[in-house]
Amino acid sequence: MIKILDFSKTIYELSKETPEIIEIMKSLGFDAITDPVMLNTAGRVMTIPKGAAMKGIALDQIKKELINQGYVIKE
C-alpha cells in the first residue's frame, strides 16, 4: 500500500492519518510533536513546510527521510 503524505495538510491531520510519522518528525527535530497540547494547538494550523521553516530544518532533509521511510510526498 502506498503511503501518501499531503504536505498541504496540517501536522495534526497527518498525525491522525499516519500516527507513525510522529516519531519520524521527532527524530528530525520536531521535538514538540510528541506533546499532545502542542499537537492539538499549533499542530492544527502548522504544515510540515511551515514547521520546517519555523524550526530552520531543511525541507529537502525532511522529504528525503520520509521518502526513505516509504512515503510519497504530495505537494
UniProtKB/TrEMBL annotation:
What Pfam families would the database entry show?
Answer: DUF1858 (PF08984)
Q: Which InterPro entries does UniProt cross-reference here?
A: DUF1858, ScdA-like_N_sf
Q: Which residues form a coiled coil?
A: none
Residues annotated as domain DUF1858: 6-62
Database matches in Gene3D superfamilies: SP0561-like
Report the protein name in the record: DUF1858 domain-containing protein
